[in-house]
Structures are given as structure tokens and as C-alpha cells.
TrEMBL record:
Organism: Rhizobium tubonense
GO biological process, one term: transmembrane transport
Topology of the protein relative to the lipid bilayer: Multi-pass membrane protein
Gene3D superfamilies linked to this entry: MetI-like
Transmembrane residue ranges: 102-124, 136-163, 202-221, 261-282, 302-328
PANTHER family: DIPEPTIDE TRANSPORT SYSTEM PERMEASE PROTEIN DPPB-RELATED (PTHR43163:SF6)
Subcellular location: Cell membrane
Stated name of the protein: ABC transporter permease
Organismal lineage: Bacteria, Pseudomonadati, Pseudomonadota, Alphaproteobacteria, Hyphomicrobiales
Amino acid sequence: MLAVSILNRLMMAAATLFGVALIVFVLLRVVPGDPIAMMISPGATPADIAALRAHYGLDTTLPVQFGIWLKSVVSGDFGTSISLKRDVLGLLGDRLPATLELAVAALVLAVISGGLVAIAGTLARRTLLEPIIDGLNGLFLAVPDFVWALALVLVFGVFLPIFPLSGRIDPSTETHFATPFYLIESLVTFQFAVFADIAAHMVMPVLALGLPLAAIIARVLKAALSEAMVQDYILLARLKGMSNLRLVLQEALRNAVGPTIALTGVQFTFLIGGTVIVERIFAYPGIGNMAIDAVINRDLPLIQGLVLVFGALFIVINLAVDLLVAAFNPRLAHG
């Protein structure tokens, strides 16, 4: 049953990705503005403009353009960036790992800190500490990621210049990476000085992305833990002499983690989307920062490639979340 469910979800994912590609392709071509007009020089002749339009496949009807582009995408050719004059797939391969490292680091921060806050709030039930924890968590929940980014720039970039303000690594660092996963590669190859420099550049973006998600995880997990703590099996365990901490960690947590995983997966997709603004603020060289430049330059091949990547990421994350939820709930795994 699980294999059939995965196959059905993969078929739905393919259909969803096709729909996303179709909608974005059409919308990009019906909005005002001509990308070719941004590329031509002042002295270009009509023949030059026509040749450039034919080179990028913009001289045919929309259905023909979509068919040609879709056929190229299926074969692994995402086209050439109009503004950067590079292969779109190569650009995505260079920039995507930076965004993934940033997003995964923010997710780890959010899960750990949000889980600790939820456990602390559950242990502090019906005490003076509980409303304080809930109030602080509500404050963190109300502030969006880009506001956190600006605040962190002011605090740790201007008033207390502890962390680097922009970039992914110090330009003066003399090292050559075999992969675009700089953080992981520097750690695996024991380049701890390089690892520390990359991590320092990630601190503020990770905090900006992770703090709002941590607040969401804390609220949902605390509510699930509070509901679990009044169940009969918790009462029975309490009668056996278990401490509150042991009750929360050993009994309630494993039953409350299911809905928290489901919500965390959904919010993680929004977190990846939030990297667009945060990467721009910190000049972080990921696909989010590149997406803004692509939109400004009306770089159609690059925008289409970016949208497909974001869509594929969302689908993969949702599929992984469904599998994790099923793994933590045997009824779903066999249903």
C-alpha cells in the first residue's frame, strides 16, 4: 500500500510540476515588457532584433514556444540565461547548494530551539513561567524573517560588528572547492578555518530564517504536548512514579511529534521561499538572490528554471514529510 501511495504521489507531483511550468510560461509572456528590448544596443537594426528573437525562440506562437521549451527541459536543456549569458542548469547547479545549506541550517536551528521551547513551556504548565514563555514565543512568531534580517544587520553588522554582513565566504580565503556545498566540504576535508568563516557568514541569515519557524514549531508542539499530557496513558505512567520531564520526553513527545512534522514540512517550503528576500539583504549568492535579478532583467529562461526548481523542491519536501508522518504513525503507514 505504501508503494502504491508513493507512486500515486509521484504521478501527482509530475502533473503539478507540468501545471506550474505551463502557468509560469504563459504568465511571463503575457505581462508587459520585452526581454529582447533590454538586450539590444542603441544601433541595432530590425534584422538584428529579429535574429535575436529567433535565437531565443520568441518569434513563434506560445504553444510552439512552450512545446520547444518543454522538450528541451525534459532533455536537460533549460536554455541560456539572457542576462548572464550562461547555461541556466549550470547557474542553478552553482547557486542551489548555497540556498540548501542555508535553509537546512535554519531548519535545524528552528527544530532544536522550537522543540526546547515547547518542552520548557510544557514543563512550566500552570506556573508563572508559562505566560512568559508563550509571550516571548508570540513575539518571535509575529516578526517576519526579513524584519529579523534587518534587525540583525543593525545589531550585529553595525552596532556590534561581529559577523560578516554579506557574501558566503571571505573573498581573501585561498581555497578551491570540488563541490558547491562549501560548508559540508570544508567540514569533511577538515578545513576548520574555512568552515568557521563560512559559518560566520551564515549566522545572521540562518537566524533570520530560523527564528520565525522556531516560534511556529514551539507553538504547535507545545499544543500537541499539552493535549498528550492529559491522556490516560500519561496518567498511568504518572501513577508509576515517572517525573514530569520523563513523561514529556518518553511518553508525550513521540505521540505529539507527528502533527509537528507535518506542519514543519509545510513551513519549510515557505522558509525556502523566504530565502529570496533574506539572501538579497545579506547579498548571499543563492538562488533566491539570483531570482530577484532574473525578474528585474526579465530573464525568461532563468526565471522558468528557477520556478521549476522551487516547484520541484516543494514537491520533494512535501513527499518526504508525508513519508515521515507515516513512519511516526503506523496507522497511516498501513492505511
